[in-house]
Amino acid sequence: MAQDHRLQPQRFELKYLIKEELVQPIRDFVGCYLELDDFSVGRANNSYEIHSIYFDSATLFTHQATVNGEKNRFKLRFRYYNDQPAAPVFCEIKQRIDNSILKRRCAIRRETVPLVVAGQIPTMDQLISPESRHLVALQRFNELMLRLNAMPRLHNHYLREAWVSPHDNSIRVTLDRNIRVEPYFGDQAVVAMTRPTRIYQEFVVLELKFTGRFPNWFNTMVSRFNLMRAAAMKYSGGVAMVGEQFFHRRDPVWEEGMAFAVSE
Q1: pTM of the model
Q2: How many helices and strands, by DSSP H and E, does the chain display?
């Protein structure tokens, strides 16, 4: 999956947990205003795969910032969409500043992932794009990772259906299903999961994303379907569901279980 150059650097995000039976009516409503993202077109249930590896400190600094409801916080993660050798891996900083979201990312070649995990910055020819803003994003990712002494802690995977504005990405609606998480401490952009835990099992996570003014038709949709905002955190929610104790360090019990599962 190539980089989506329509991504906006700053936006607002509102999250809702909905039942599966609401998906089709909401899909029909949203389809009057937006079109399917190119990556959703032609796929089963309009959905494509997303994988993320979240980085955190031994004390779970970024997780605790979310739990404590800090207004200004950030997350560090790798994001990727498959395990193809030529497919990029994105180093991302997702930063919340009060009520707005700022996302910075840099695409790197898959073979450089262990270098980044080890705290090194790839050379320019190992980056997908030569644009200076991408290099700056990678340097900032590296700075924050080293400052926290952060390492991979959690791998999550889910299926996303995305709807976007016809001419730009100022409005985006996503539906995320089958969100699965597990502790991960390695240095690869893995896709296989060994003993995943599914979070928000009974729900689909609906996100309304926009830049600038809240669209009027969002208000209509929220009212028509009686939507209530909810916390739907794919990293912190996963840590809480599995148990913080499994993410502070490499847990020998967990790793022994993984080794047993792999050998079966």
Answers
A1: 0.89
A2: 7, 10
